[in-house]
Design brief:
Length: 139
């Protein structure tokens, strides 16, 4: 039996079920939030830019980075993370921050970052998916 399994059994037997459920939720939130700092680093965006993108304060972003993301925001964080994953697979990592800041004619002169700030992480993700949709290329 692993140390983690033993610890889980000890906690479950010595605490009420509600406390165990809250612990599980807190650990799950922390685990889910671990993707957020990676996406931030890949994209090269500041806490302020992320706050603008998610419509929250810079302090909320700091809290997400240390304590995990609120359940209600997980979809938006998943979109941001997925966009950063696609960019990481398709571009050199050192070029991603510049690429998301470059104005794009198809976005009305806005950059991907500006699109994300104006319309949210889902719009950013959708545009990244569309940009790298290789099925549109016909030979």
């Amino acid at each position: 039996m692993s140390d983690a399994t033993e610890l889980a059994e000890q906690l479950a037997s010595s605490h009420d079920p509600q406390w165990v459920a809250e612990l599980i939720e807190a650990l799950a939130n922390r685990t889910r939030g671990n993707q957020f700092p990676t996406a931030q680093a890949v994209l090269g965006v500041s806490d302020v830019e992320l706050a603008d993108m998610f419509g929250v304060t810079r302090q909320a972003i700091k809290q997400w980075l240390t304590g995990g993301v609120q359940t209600a925001r997980l979809g938006a964080v998943a979109d941001l993370t997925a966009a950063s994953d696609i960019l990481r697979r398709r571009l050199r990592v050192d070029r991603i921050p510049a690429a998301i800041r470059r104005p794009a004619p198809n976005l009305g002169g806005r950059s991907l970052l500006e699109l994300g700030i104006d319309e949210g992480p889902h719009a950013l993700y959708a545009e990244v998916v569309d940009t790298f949709d290789l099925t549109r290329i016909s030979g």
